Amino acid sequence: MNTLLRLLIILSSLSGLVAFAADSPSQRLSLDAVMTKSEQEDTGVSKLSAKEKAALEQWLTGFATKVVTASATIPKAAAYAAAGQKHWVSSKADGGAFIQLEDGSFWQISSLDKIKTMLWLPTENIVVVESSNPQYPYKLVGERDTAEAKLITGARGTSQAGARDGDIDLYDSTGNAVEAPAFYHFVDLFELQQYIAFSKDAVELNLHLKRHFEVMSCSCNAAIRMRFLRQSVKPVSSVEIANNADSYVFAFRMLPHSQHQGDQLIKALFQALREHDFFGRLELYDRIFKRGNDVYYDLGVGLACSTPGYPQVPDGAWWRAFQARFARLVDSTWGFRLSDYCGATLMSDTRRDFDGLAVMDMEHGVAVSRD
């Protein structure tokens, strides 16, 4: 039996294996107890000889025992002794995903709050308080906003019990190795089969599994189940918008002390395109930009119309009408306010200064192909 098939069986059976191995360590797991006949046929287990099946059951039983033993030694979240005291940001890494304070403590930031911490500056004042979120048991309270976080390594001179049990290597700003606790999440057989079937190669499979873990982490370890839709996505066939053509920048001031929901802005943009019955190519870019003392979230939009009778590149009158429609759909509770910095700029400047989000061909404002 090939290695991939073994992996499928192992992962799909683990939830039953853990309980079995914990209660009956001296017995051998029965595949018939954790897999239906159809599952055994689908995975090829039914084709194994009695000897091969017994060997597989013995191996899985030993593996399950190791999983149970390992899970029992996973360290609990480390306690931070300096909570409630004033601190300041010493450094940050990975665009704000990790924050180090002046006392040497190293923190992993919730992916939902990374948009906040990426704007934090060195020496910014921070107070650490406890959170009710078990995945991120602390909050780093900054001068303007708050981010949920979990402690990776404590302050200099403190000992983090159990930290050596982690197997995820990280490095702090001084180059010293630190370790984070390891966590486990079980994926059932049917779901894993979909990941493999819809992945072109190992790289794409890794991206699918990484996204699964991100969604699971952000939902406080909820029972997440992914499903792939059999919907064909055609590659973009339209011609790239010329560098000397105009794009348009929608500049949103990020309101302080607010939860910033950038995904809602994207949805509102697509809604405006649908209401405008747009046909053609969309190139979408974004960036976070500081103007004076205020922070802005800029959306760079390049459009090339394919509707007969319309200019291929929208003119100023078209953009003004579209901006009015877009602004009407934006809700202030999302933490943004459309500013007077909106306006046209060259596509070459947008491509140079912004990060790419998406390229797609649209009909009636709905994507029919994308890259």
Q: What is the topology?
A:
Blueprint: H1 3-23, H2 31-34, H3 37-43, H4 50-72, E1 86-93, E2 98-101, E3 106-109, H5 114-117, E4 125-130, E5 138-141, E6 146-153, E7 168-171, E8 177-180, H6 189-197, H7 202-218, E9 246-254, H8 262-275, E10 280-291, E11 294-305, H9 316-329, E12 336-338, E13 343-346, H10 347-353, E14 355-363, E15 366-370
Antiparallel strand pairs: 1-2, 1-4, 2-3, 3-6, 4-5, 5-6, 7-8, 9-11, 9-12, 9-13, 10-11, 10-14, 14-15
Question: In words, what does this structure look like?
Answer:
This protein is of the alpha+beta class and 371 residues long. The protein folds into four domains: 3-72, no CATH class; 86-180, no CATH class; 183-231, no CATH class; 246-370. Helix content is 32%, strand content 26%. It has helices spanning 3-23, 31-34, 37-43, 50-72, 114-117, 189-197, 202-218, 262-275, 316-329, 347-353, and strands at residues 86-93, 98-101, 106-109, 125-130, 138-141, 146-153, 168-171, 177-180, 246-254, 280-291, 294-305, 336-338, 343-346, 355-363, 366-370. The strands form three sheets. Strands 9, 10, 11, 12, 13, 14 and 15 form a seven-stranded antiparallel β-sheet that branches. It has a six-stranded antiparallel beta barrel with strand order 1-2-3-6-5-4. Strand 4 (125-130) and strand 5 (138-141) form a beta hairpin. The chain is flat, with a radius of gyration of 26 Å. It starts with a helix and ends with a strand. The relative contact order is 0.10. Mean pLDDT is 76; it is low at 1-25, 71-76, 158-175 and 178-183.
